[in-house]
Amino acid sequence: MARLSMRKADLHSSPVREMLSVAQRPGVISFAGGLPSPETFAGLDLPPPPQALLQYGPTEGEPDLREQIAKELTALGIDAPAERILVLSGSQQGIDLVAKLVVDPAVGVAVESPAYLAALQVFRFFGARFEILDRAAPAAGWDEAAPALAYVTPTFQNPTGQCWTTAERLAMARACDAHDVILFEDDPYRDLAYEPCDRRPVSADLKSASWIYQGSFSKTVAPGLRLGFLTASEDLFPYLVRLKQAADLHTNRLSQWMVLQYLTDPDREARMARVVDLYRRKRDVFAEALTRHLGDRAAWTTPPGGLFFWLTLADGVDAEALLKRALERNVLFTPGSHFLAQGGASSTLRLNFSLAAPEAAERGLKVLGALLREG
Hints:
The protein has 375 residues and is of the alpha/beta class. Helix content is 36%, strand content 14%. It has 10 helices and 13 strands. The protein has helices at residues 15-23, 63-75, 91-102, 117-125, 166-179, 237-248, 253-263, 268-294, 319-328, 358-374, and strands at 29-30, 85-88, 108-111, 129-132, 149-152, 182-186, 211-216, 228-232, 298-300, 308-313, 331-332, 334-335, 348-352. The strands form 3 sheets. Strands 2-8-7-6-5-3-4 form a 7-stranded mixed beta sheet, with helices on both faces. Helix 3 (91-102) runs parallel beside helix 4 and helix 8 (268-294) packs parallel to helix 10 (358-374).
């Protein structure tokens, strides 16, 4: 063991990946992962793929796919020509590449609290010093020592499902510009919108700061394809490409071809409308069941988009302790402590509403309500 790097001390298994293995047990009702409903997976009748895709491909990604992504990002107001699109092996790879590029031990990284747990895991592995971001005043304390990087998910944030206001988005952009902080905007849920809210990327309003914007096809096409993308300011993009070259040469070409068929399918808009309608109905059914079974034992806000409810338990109940008891009843969720950069016990938890069938969600939430009333 003495021959391994010092970083091994910060190499911890993902709590969500461990929970997903538990979720495979027969009879388990899982609210734990961010798993899309299999009903939403793209059902395109695809022709045989070109044989040339079995050969090595360009690190940046397939040219036609990059052109399509660039066109859609440009429509959002982002400066994203095709030559600055990098196709990823899932957006998790983007987090890893950015961390490798920016984060050294004790480098400041500003994050929301709570924040996406897998991003915290990566930044922590590289030795980040976390600073908690105040959306209303993101530059608070930055005059003394600004962080190197600000990692944010402004649209239907994981785990809370919240959507930033226009004022909060503009304040974030101005703070990064004024203090030369790299903005890393993660935007995997933007298409899963059930209520109106401002979804304009923060990256679109930057004037001088360096930035990275990334998205994913896991929630809108299929997670098993492991396909995401990023774009970045001109100063950062070449380094991210070189890091990608060192990681895996290029992303799966068959997955890229399949996603391109989805993006250019004439039925795409109608299909996405069906997906959003399905998730809105599942969200509303889930909210009604939450009210029935946990209405007097927890507080929450119905999310305007995304895949999650964020709950705060009454009377300071420890969510980790509740999970142990829930597992005995075959119910799984993610304790909120995993989403806190500064750690510690928490009475919060994240519930995914997209995977479980309505009748299973009803049973699972009934179990949680009963456990909370048992004390």
